Amino acid sequence: MTKQALIVVDIQNDYFPNGKWPLSGADAAADNAARIVAAARDAGDLIIHVRHESIGETAAFFLAGSEGAQIHQKVLNRPGETVIVKNHVNAFRETDLKATLDRHGIEEVTVVGSMSHMCIDAVTRAASDLGYRVTVVHDACATRDLEFNGTLVPAAQAHAAFMAAFAFAYASVLSTDEALAKHGEVRVSA
Fold first, then answer.
1. What's the confidence (pLDDT) of residue 184?
2. Domain spans of the chain, in order of start
3. Neighbour-count burial for 131-154, b at 16+ CB within 10 Å, e otherwise
């Protein structure tokens, strides 16, 4: 069994066009995430799908039991693949994500999904803090425009700022093509 896992975070219907909280570039990011998922399946890596369900009737999106809270068809889990349901930004908080990784002897995780500035940020930093080697596939992640104190932060800039922060101290940040090439090299040399 490999020591690598893929964590697919919140690629859910509400983040796509016609959803309740559409992201900039959600389709392109999901297409790239699907390529990473396919490679992980081919390699026999552990794949963990993380699905957010909002608690409370006032939630803007990912309402429990809604179509919007379901995993998008582009990366839909297969039978036997782990699905972890979370209710907080950090996928490690009040879930069995760490226990699942540890039970499988995982040392390195690759992260794809949404949103770059929230759940990807939280899981990346937490995984690094917990001692896992982390890779974030930047073009397999998506976010949306942000606003702070009257200043609009376009999605591309918000995404770039978070990827730069990860690369500085938390993770290797690779494109889909780079991640696939690295994954292939690891398999050939293993």
1. 73
2. 4-189
3. ebebbbbbbbbbbbebeeeeeebe
Q: For 81, what's the count of Cα atoms within 13 Å in the CB-facing half-sphere? A: 22
CB atoms within 10 A of CB 103: 10
Tokens of 147: 């606003």
**Each residue's pLDDT tens digit, 146-157:** 999 999 999 999
- The structure tokens 């929230």 sit at 118
Q: What is the CATH number of domain 4-189?
A: 3.40.50.850
- Which H or E run contains 157? helix 155-169
pTM over 0.90: yes
Alpha-carbon torsion, ordered 38, 39, 40, 41, to 10 deg = 50
